[in-house]
Structures are given as structure tokens and as C-alpha cells.
User: What shape does this take?
Amino acid sequence: MELKIGAFSLEPPVVLAPMAGVTNTAFRRLCRAYGGALYVSEMVTARALVERNRKTERMVARAEGEPIHSVQLYGVDPVVMTAAVRHLVDDVGVDHVDLNFGCPVPKVTKLGGGAALPIHHNLFEAIVRGAVRAAGTVPVTVKMRVGVSDQHVTFLRAARAAVDAGVAAVALHARTAEQLYSGSADWARIAALVELLDGTGVPALGNGDIWEGADGPRMAAETGCAGVVVGRGCLGRPWLFRDLDCAFTGQPVPDSPLLGFVADAMRTHVRLLVEDFGDEAHAVRDFRKHVSWYLTGYPVGGEVRRRMALASSIDELDAMLDALDPAASLPQAARRAKRGHTNGPRPVALPHRWIETANDLDVPEGAELLVSGG
Assistant: This one.
């Protein structure tokens, strides 16, 4: 099964979902060592790029050996978004730009960004059209949620507008913003997107509840989607991309790894972070959040997890990893254990009268300054 996004052919048809604080250069390198996919950067803000923010410029720099340089961009102002995409294409030299219309974080949605933006369909269309024009031959894709809530579903109208604007693919996280990360993704919504895009030549991608290798082909079979987008499923499981590769190509999917394999991956991950940050202390601190994800379900005990998540050096972390039982296995009941965010449902914070003024093109005051700098 092959996925085409612009001039790129992806086999297996798998995309890494951008995750703030996670999908940095080190994590993308680690995942790429296990299997093929389109590995997208952390989300960066259009305003920060236009301002040439130093941290953001570092985040969007091409990593050594990265075959497809893919960046996800957030913005609320069509003019700023257009300028940011032009900078990414002309100066940074990216190969692919993804636009974020799915973030459900309150500090984003309360200013009309992320998952809240498609409600303002004219503003949404202006942003996408500006980005596509600025990108030229570089493919632009969009990632969105079903809507703000079940009462305000926007994905079908937004997808039609995005296709008319010239996007190369549309990805749907099959939850509403109100759901956050609770419950189950509604794959029937992905099937509805596939039906809508049928005959347009624009592929529909599905996102939500890809926890094991077999879930990828199952989502494709149940929804007809052209590819899958993987988010929380790969937290602490970078080898999920290997498993998806096997599943999509009809090969046997390896069993869940023993704890020794996991410990080796953890060692590699933290060392890649050191290379990325150039600072061991910074790298080890950043790695702490990954510890619980890697060890989820394995019989290591809460005290070991706690101490490992407080490690302050690679030597300290290595000593604790050496003390783990390398032959310990993951119980069957833990193989689909959720990792990352599980919060929700929760009412969505929106700008004042955001729903009542859905036709407006006005950019909410302060929206573009919210997360400037990354």
C-alpha cells in the first residue's frame, strides 16, 4: 500500500503526528531507525518564523540524514501564515508543510486557533489558500479534528475548502476538540472523509487509536483511508513504525519486545537527545517524560520508575537501566495501554461569540502572539 503526497511516495503509508515537546530531531531519528514513514516536526508558529525567532529557526532546520524535511505550522493570520510558508520553502528548504487545525489546547482554542479555527470557514480558507500559494510546488497538507464538539462538526466543510485550495492531503483525528484524548476515535468519521474526497485525487489520512502494528491496516480496511497518522501510540514505542511496516507489507509483526530491548532503545534515545541539544543535563531532563511511556506495563515497580524519572545524568540513567531484568516481558493485557494525554472530555474555550461570528475574516486580537517562539 502506497501513499502519495505531492511528488512523494510513502510505503508504508504512515505519518508521524507532530507532538509538542516530543517529535524533535532526536525522536524522529530514533523512529526512522525502525521503519519508514513521513516524520513531521513539532508544531511551530507562523509568527515565530516571520520574526526569525532563534529557537524556532533551530526547530525547523533540516536534520542530518532526514530524507523528507517536513514541518508543521500553526497560525491564525493569513498574511503571517503566507510569509511563514514562503520562508520555510525559500530559505529553510522544507519538502513538506503541514497546517495545524486540530490542536485542542485551551490557550490555543480560546484565541481561535487550532481546532477552533475551522468554525470560521472563510478565515480557514484564506489561511490554507495563502499557504498553498506560498509553497509553490512544495506539498501542503492539513490536519484537523472532527470539530469543536458533536454540536459543531466542521471537518467535511473544511476538507472541501482545503481541497479546493489545492492541498495535497487531508488528515483527520477522529475526535472532537471537546473529547480531547478521551474515549475512542470514531473511525466512521474517517470513512466519511474518504467518501467526500473520492474522485478528487487528494488522499484522506486517518488518525486516532493506532496502538499496535495491526491497527494500521485495520483502519485502512475499515475506513478506506490512504494512510494512517500515528500519535500517542509511538510514545515509548518507537518500534511501532517497524510493526506498521510489517503489518502493511503482510509480514509477521514481532511480539512486544522484552525489557532489555526497551532499555537499549531508551539508552539510544537519550544519547540522540544529547547530540540534538548539545547539553547532557538538558537532554536527560527532557528524557524524563519518556521514562513512564517506555516502561508502561512492564513489571518494574513504581519506585524504579520514580527514580529513573529523576535521573540527572546518563551514567545515573544507565546504572538504573542495567539493573532492570532484560528478560521481563510485557503482559498481554498491557499491550494496548494508553500513553500520553488521556484527559477529557472538557468544554472548549473559544473567543467571545466565535460561533455566532463564523463568517468573519477578522483575526482574534493576540492570537498570533500567543505562542511566538515555538
